[in-house]
Structure formats: C-alpha cells, structure tokens
Amino acid sequence: MNRTNTRRTSTLGAVALTAALVLTGCFSGGGGGAGPSPEEGDGRIALAMLQPPRSGLTPLSDDAFKLTRWSTVESLVSLDDAGDAQPALATDWTQSDDTTWDLTIREGVLFHDGTTLDAAAVVNALQNALHASPRPRVLDGYELTAEAVDDMTVRIVTGTPDPILPQRLSSPQLVILAASAYGDDGTVDPTGTGTGPFELTEIGGTSTATLERFDDYWGGPAEAAGIDVTYVNDGAARGAALRTGAADIVEAIPVSQLALLDQALLHEVPMPRTNAVYFNNGEGVFADQAMRAAARAALDPESIVENVYEGHADITGGLFGPALPWAEDVRGDIASSVAPADPAGATITLATYSDRAELPEVAVLVEQQLEAAGFEVRQDVREYANFEPDALEGDFDAIIFSRAVLLETGDPVAYLTSDYSCAGTFNFAQLCDPEIDRLIAAASAAEPGEERQKAIAAVEEAILQADALAPLLHERVVQGEGEGVAGALRDPRERRLITEDTTAP
Questions:
Q1: Sign of the torsion formed by the C-alpha atoms of 316, 318, 320 and 322
Q2: What is the spatial distance between Cα 160 and Cα 262, in angstroms, rounded to a whole number?
Q3: CA–CA separation, 451 vs 488, rounded Å?
Q4: What are the tens digits of pLDDT across the range 234-257?
C-alpha cells in the first residue's frame, strides 16, 4: 500500500475510534478535511462499510456480498432491476429438458492471476461450492452436477426441475474464481483470483481491505484507481466519516445521524429487508405456539417505526414488503392460528446485535411491550460475530434480526428454504415443520410469474399462522455519498455498490 493509501485508511480508522469527537478528514478522495483538493486527488475511493468479514472474505459465505459490492468478483449471471437474469460471465443459456441447461462462457476474460476463464474453471468453482462445508445457503437442499461440454460450454443438470436456475447462478456465493483460489483444505482465497474491474490485493483482517484497478478487465478498465475499505461498525462513526469527508461512500447511516448530515449527501433506498422477532420454536417458553402468539400480539410495530426509525421504515404486512410489489396482492391469511396464552410472568431471553445501530433501540421497545403483556425479559446484546453462532444454536428464546429476503437468488424461495425448512442452515426460528417443507418444495418447483408468487404466499401464510416469528418492519437503508462522488449504485439487493464507472474526487 502506498503512502497516500495508508493515510486514507488510518484516517478512517481514527474516525471509527473517535465517533463522538469533531473529526477532520486528512486523506485524498474525501469531500472535505485537510487532504488534497479533488483536482489533486489520487482517484481512489474510500469506503466505510458496516460489518467486518465473518469468514475471512470467503465467497462461500455472506462475505461474498462484500466482494461483489467491490466489483472484484463476478457470477455467471447478473440480475436487472426487475430480477430477470442477464448475461455476465455466461453470455447465454439454453434449457434442453426440465433439468438440463447449457451455458456459454464469455470469451476473453482473464482472472486477476493471469489465467483464462473457461468451462473447466467454471466447473471447478461450482464443484468447490457444492462440496463446501457448510454449503452456501443458495445451495441449501439443492443438488446439481456440472461438466465441461467443450472449452467454453458448461452443462448443468439439476436434481429436480429448477425454473430459476439462471437467477440462482447470479448469487454472489457462486462467483467464479481462478483455480488458484481454492485450497485442498476447503479454504477459498479471493485475493488476486477474481475477474472484476478491481483486484483484491490486501486483506487487513477485520479492519481493512485494499483493491487496485485491474487494467485487463474484460469490460474495460475502471475509472477509479482503487478502493480503500475500512469496516466501521459504529453508526456515529460512519456518520462522522461522511460529514468530515473521511470516506467517499458510507454504508447504512443510522437514523440517529441523519439530522447531523448534509441531506444532499444522503440517499434512501427501500430494501427487501425485514426486521422481525424470531421465536425459538424448538425449545423453551416459545416451543408452545400459544406463547408465541401472545408475544406476537403484544408487539406494536408502528411505535417502533415512529420512535426508533423516525418514519424511515415501512410497517410490515408480512415477510415481504414494498421491494416485492406483488406480495400484498397475493398474500393470504397471516393471522395466528391459535389463541394467545397468558404469559404469567414467563422469563425469556431476548437477544440482538449492535452492528445495526437501531436494533438495540428496537430491543428496548420490544422488551417494554412484552413485559407489558406479562413476560419477564432479559436482554442480551452483542456484536454480530458473537451473536450469530449462539442464535443459530437456539441459545435464546427470541432474537431481533434484520434479514434480507432476496440476497441469494433475487427470488424469495432461497430465503424461505434457508430460514424455515428443516434442513435450512440459517434457521434462527429453530423451525421444522413437514407441511412447511412441502410448501417450500412446491414453491421451488413453480414456474416464475403468478404461479410462483402464489406458492411463495402459501409458504408465508403457513409460517406466520404458526407464529414462527413476528415481523416488525421493512428497512430503508440510507447510503452516504460524498460531494463529487459519481456512479455509485444504490442497490436494494445489496449486491452492487462500486463499479467500473464509479468515481470520487
């Protein structure tokens, strides 16, 4: 890393450590502070991100979404604004029967390590995803085989008919890396092994990452010289980074900071992200559905939207909000199927995480509402890295979680499978119901369009009638872009952010 880049990174780190102070940016590329003027800038983009990597930036985890937001890795398929599949590393695809697809691989693509993209590289990447432990969520309960038909054609055969295979292949967790990325021990290293316009050159643990422009990118060189990433999980610090010019682009500015910032630098994006209270359906107080129904009935989402989000969120009508405009039209009866019980002083542990600044505040109101209904509540608030493992193990009676419902495929079925099926690997609700599994399978097999939408609505109805969770609201995320920033994407799916066209002063 050169001297200028070091100054940029250390300045943003200082912002994170001194969020309550009046800060001054002192690196180039920012919109203020004591660094060079835009005319003298180094052409790099300083990015403040919400959460650090959870799995060493392996693309087989949720860290994949960081990699695609930096445009250092690419999938075979991309999605347009409507969620329809578009060419990326695959230029086209044809279906010869219900389970067989042939994909034509783009020619002239170089990996960052200098090797060439071909069918063998694609098959290798897909095989590594299939044999990973744990598997990427997009492959939960899913089987496929991949083979190279010729140098630039890959044949994929799915275990069951999959009408949305192209959308599935758009998942950031199925990006294609060079063979050198995959270790014999199952590790995956994205450093210098992607195909995007920016090459990941340095991973600074859970603090920073550095990317440089890849001049041999198949789509043409990027406008920016590189990207300097700093992870800033403190919301006030992210707001300060934008206010002082310490960062050019800032993820997820919390509501509490909005009034302190130049409104021209803020961009509000309705998200396919649902905040909910997940109940432990497997054991403890909430193994009894009548107790889950009592807790769900006690909650007042409107007061949470008004008092915590100051109106910058949408009241939920179910699992799916405004980002899926068809959801309300096909939604069934999502009321509880049982009468609420009397909590009678039952003691529960309510957990959430502090990385999203609003969630601890939500927890305070949820605690008050549950206690008003007769529960005794103990809170457990942690950083996300310490929260997720215990939540997945079912160590809490209830958790408050912000969940993106379209991340994996641009289609809700992958989310329903991973979060609510017996075999799901992201099942915070500890839910296992054969009837819900049957409905998820039916939705997975349904053709895109009205048929699939109605099948998804049937799954939603069954989950909510069982009181597996209590949806609260749908988030709107506020993205900060400093003065002079151009071409940053405002992606509701949180897949893209900086592209080859993004610039900063």
A1: negative
A2: 52
A3: 35
A4: 999 999 999 999 999 999 999 889
CATH at 120: 3.90.76.10
- How far is the C-alpha of 18 from the C-alpha of 16, rounded, in Å? 6
The answer on 201 and 172 residing in a single domain is no
Tokens of 467: 């009181």
Q: How far apart are CA 24 and CA 201, in angstroms?
A: 28
The vertex-146 CA angle with 141 and 148, nearest 5°, equals 175
Burial state string for 22-59 with b = 16 or more CB within 10 A and e = fewer than 16:
ebbbbbbbbbebebbeeeebbebbbbbbbbbbeeebbb
| Between 62 and 460, the higher pLDDT residue | 460
Q: Pull the structure tokens for residue 279.
A: 């109940």
Give kind and range of the element (H or E) at residue 256.
Answer: helix 255-258
Structural domain contains residue 52: yes
Same domain, 96 and 159: yes
Burial class (CB in 10 A: 0-12, 13-18, 19+), 402: buried
pLDDT in tens, 310-332: 999 999 889 999 888 889 999 99
Q: How confident is the model at residue 270 (pLDDT cuts 50, 70, 90)?
A: confident
- Residue 158, beta-bridge partner list: 144
Residue 336 falls inside a structural domain: yes
Q: Please, are residues 249 and 485 in contact by the beta-carbon 8 Å criterion?
A: yes
Domain CATH number, residue 291 = 3.10.105.10
Burial of 323 (0-12, 13-18, 19+ CB in 10 A): buried
Contact 446, 271 (CB under 8 A): no
Residue 156 belongs to what H/E stretch? strand 153-158
Cα separation, 314 vs 247, in Å, equals: 29
Query: Residues 200, 299: one domain?
Result: no
pLDDT of 21 above 50: no
pLDDT at 41: 54
Q: What is the CATH number of the domain that holds 222?
A: 3.40.190.10
Smallest CA-to-CA distance from 352 within 304, 318, 316, 406 is with 304
Angle in degrees, 0-180, between the axes of helices 358-373 and 289-298, rounded to the nearest 10: 110
Q: Rounded to whole angstroms, how far apart are CA atoms 4 and 41?
A: 10
Which of 147, 181, 215 corresponds to the end of one domain?
A: 181
Which pTM does this prediction carry? 0.75
